[in-house]
């Protein structure tokens, strides 16, 4: 199994605060890796490292075999064309229609004609179960539909990898199930890699090929769903059982 991206001995600070210490993690190509952990553990920072939005203070970040931590912005922009990002709150522009929101990456990154763009937008919206909403505005859709539109925008350029930040947070169990299923289907359709930051265990158990658990900026456990569920590590077990993790020495 290939490696899509690798974090190697990465340290990250925000000002004086150390949020990641000597973290190493391989993201397996063609798989769904879920990153779990308590709030503030550094999960979103992992996504930002993977698309070059955050540079590590030390250590290496390699994506598709290229070391990106020392890349210039121009090269990073090229890299980001191959990585879709589904934001936590979808980040759609309220003043643009759903069709125009989904079209944005195509208008920015390709030389496709308007007709080609609108055709692809319509097909992509169809593939996330949102047919015929191109002319509606985000405020006219339900929370679950807005999330789907955010997924459509993340995948419209057929990226090699898609990063999802809390894709199901705040949604009811039925919509959570549908969106989780959609992440699996989109990964298959793109034949690519997905990294999902989530603390929704039901959803993670449904979709994860691999789980990486973060605790205080370090990986405390990594493995398949079964391996993580059977982990003898008390930090993992407390997290899975939903109780607060106390100051356990690691
Ligand atoms: N731009 C920033 N400036 C200062 N501190 C930051 C910044 N971004 C993140 N942090 C801090 O870094 C730590 C890790 O943040 P991160 O967002 O990666 O955590 P997370 O696990 O995704 O949390 P959550 O589940 O709450 O989104 C947190 O303590 C956060 O307060």
Can you put this structure into words, describing what you see?
Residues 5-241 form the ABC transporter domain. It is a single chain. The protein is built from 9 helices and 10 strands. It is an alpha/beta fold and 250 residues long. α3 packs parallel to α5 (143-155), α5 (143-155) runs parallel beside α6 (173-190) and α6 runs parallel beside α7 (201-207). The radius of gyration is 18 Å and the shape is globular. Residues 14, 17, 19, 37, 39-45 line the site of adenosine-5'-triphosphate.
Give Rg in angstroms: 18 Å
Order of helices and strands: EEEHEEHEHHHEHEHEEHH
Ligand inventory: adenosine-5'-triphosphate
Note the total helix count: 9
The stretches of 5 or more residues where confidence is low (pLDDT under 50) are: none
Report helical residue fraction: 25-40%
Approximate shape: globular
Order of the strands making up the biggest sheet: 6-7-8-3-9-10
Largest sheet: 6 strands, mixed
Overall pLDDT level: 91
N/C terminus separation: 30 Å
Beta-strand residue percentage: 25-35%
Please identify the structural class as seen in this structure.
alpha/beta
Number of strands: 10
Topology (elements, then pairings):
Blueprint: E1 3-14, E2 17-28, E3 32-36, H1 43-50, E4 58-63, E5 66-67, H2 73-80, E6 83-86, H3 98-109, H4 114-127, H5 143-155, E7 161-165, H6 173-190, E8 193-197, H7 201-207, E9 210-215, E10 218-223, H8 225-229, H9 234-240
Helix pairs in contact: 3-4, 3-5, 4-5, 5-6, 6-7
The structure holds adenosine-5'-triphosphate.
